[in-house]
Design brief:
globular; hpI Integrase, Chain A; 5% strand; 356 residues; DNA polymerase, domain 1; two-stranded antiparallel ribbon; mainly alpha
Length: 356
């Protein structure tokens, strides 16, 4: 195996860079200056999202502002003609638009992200003195409504793990696959629910990431920083069972570092495959809830807060840079707080009876 593919995160970054290069080829040439300028303080994934957003923005300018002028022909001087009204029209346009022959739509969060990208883009060229005006600061960010916190309740967590282990409720055609993957799938779900790990962190784990002497593992967080997370004996048992199964399977590649979770083709499992297996089991247990790996992370965060009552511990374990992010994700805790004080205020006091 090449050195490139030995490191999951390096390989992922290289793929992102290839995608960015392909997208830049469709944008005006001066866009390369922006991506080069922000590179030292952004991840490849952030820059890839910038590229996707700018592709939509310049397509809008080509169609609506400059009336058919090719995207590649748009200049920095043209950007100076983009006013606040144009940007408001852009946000409205994102509600329902066509790109690449497909009808697409952005919700309020997607609109806010695209506006943030455009602001960063204009700010870069304005600060460099390459454009004389920056009207993006005149447009307010779309109002974001709080999303409902969706998570599993305790009994649903147990049912989910039982379903992964036993295959109860799976359609007949999935039974054969389940027999081969049930130990792996149980380990994946247990790791999500027992540590709150991000899906990208889980996919990037190697066998060598685990230390059972301390029940800990090393993850690469957003931004590339590494952190040590700890897990319970219950999580350890699920991981050990999966490692034992891998050890006994002669088809598992002998390589170092060795990806922890493997696909049925004996390659590192993909983010999409993990998303699909979570959806498969969750749909059986709780069909009305749209459970994703991130919702399993929310389930863990909620449980950890209930046990500790310390939002800062939850933020640290989950790798949130801002504790307010944690508060937003686990705002459902306030429901428990409200319920706990429901009887705190008495409207009818016993001594009042004596006065009558």
């Amino acid at each position: 195996m090449s050195s490139k593919s030995e490191n999951y995160y390096q390989e992922r970054n290289l793929k992102n860079l290839d995608r960015i290069d392909a997208l830049l080829a469709t944008l005006p040439d001066f866009c390369e200056d922006f991506f080069r300028g922000v590179e030292p303080r952004t991840s490849t994934l952030t820059r890839l999202n910038y590229a996707y957003d700018l592709r939509i923005f310049f397509d809008f300018l080509s169609k609506k502002k400059f009336h058919g002028k090719a995207v590649k022909e748009i200049t920095l001087e043209d950007l100076e003609q983009v006013n606040a009204t144009d940007l408001e029209i852009f946000l409205s346009y994102l509600t329902r638009y066509t790109f690449g022959g497909r009808r697409l739509s952005c919700d309020e969060r997607a609109k806010a992200r695209k506006l943030s990208t455009v602001r960063s883009f204009f700010k870069y060229f304005f600060n460099k003195g390459l454009i004389a005006v920056n009207n993006t600061t005149k447009v307010p960010t779309p109002k974001l409504h709080e999303k409902e916190i969706i998570r599993l309740e305790n009994e649903e967590v147990s049912e989910l793990l039982d379903t992964a282990e036993l295959g109860t409720g799976l359609p007949p055609h999935a039974s054969g696959y389940h027999e081969r993957t049930k130990i792996r799938d149980t380990a994946i779900l247990t790791l999500f629910l027992g540590t709150g790990i991000r899906i990208s962190e889980l996919v990037g784990l190697n066998n060598e990431s685990l230390d059972f002497s301390t029940n800990s593992f090393v993850v690469t967080r957003k931004g590339g920083n590494q952190a040590i997370l700890y897990f319970s004996d219950e999580v350890a048992d699920a991981l050990i069972a999966y490692l034992e199964q891998k050890k006994e399977d002669p088809r598992v590649p002998k390589e170092s570092p060795s990806p922890l979770f493997l696909s049925m083709q004996y390659r590192r499992i993909t983010v999409r495959a993990v998303e699909n297996l979570v959806k498969k089991y969750a749909r059986i247990v709780t069909p009305l809830k749209k459970i994703t790996p991130h919702k399993l992370r929310s389930t863990y965060g909620t449980a950890l807060y209930r046990e500790t009552g310390d939002i800062y511990i939850v933020a640290d374990v989950l790798g949130h840079r801002d504790v307010n992010t944690t508060r937003r994700h686990y705002a459902a805790i306030s429901e428990d707080n409200r319920r706990s004080v429901a009887d705190a205020v008495k409207l009818h006091r016993p001594e009042d009876d004596d006065d009558e």
